[in-house]
Specification:
single chain, 256 residues, alpha/beta, Rossmann fold, 6-stranded mixed sheet, 4-stranded antiparallel sheet, 8 helices, 27% strand, globular
Amino acid sequence: MIDVKHVSVTLSDKKILQDISFQIPQGRILMVLGENGSGKTTLIKSMLQQLPYTGDILYQHQHISHMQEKERAKIFSYVPQIKELAMDMRVEDCIVAGCSRHLSIFEVPSNAQYEQVNALMEKFHLTHIKGKRLDEISGGELQMVYVARAFLQNACVMIMDEPCTYLDFKRQHMFLQETRRLCKEGKTIVLTIHDPNLALQYGDEIILLHKGKLKAHLKKETNDMEKECLRYYNELYGNHFTMSNMIEKGFLIWKE
């Protein structure tokens, strides 16, 4: 379980997050929704100890801030936004870097680990870019490369910052279906996303950030997560959304 307690972040005298608290049980997908600048990336970077914060963030009742970096690497894998990434390496070398937490300082990846890379590239339909540098492939392909690297790390918690941004429709669902499979194996997934309908379809829980504050924490078990999400979207962003019931569960549509 991840327990975020009263977390606030101030950067350059500006309050980015204000008193954020929530829990994530093991084996769940938490979707983090919110407009640009709402604090989504700041929240996940705080969870990864990449930004200073006040409050407490715990994993299995242990303060993450007290853990050594190697210990945190065994717990968390991270898929950052593409704009943060280095590009001067081959695709398969980037993916195999997910094994680094298993290696000593002088050890190099084994043939068996590269076989795992090949299997992941096959699963995510990336074999056609094998041998290419990261700056030679498309944004969607690059996104899936970093997703594959995080999968190879096999950490307990996968944290991903807008992993669907550059993916086409098919790849978005293929990726999110794979995250559902990982949850059934006991992994915990935290990802920021802009599409509320993908969040409603695949998320077990949704938190909605607005101007650095936690405005809603919705859970699938309530059976009215869609209606509650609609209510909050209309409350926060104006009465622009309605619900369509063309499928088994409703989804949000822009009504103007």
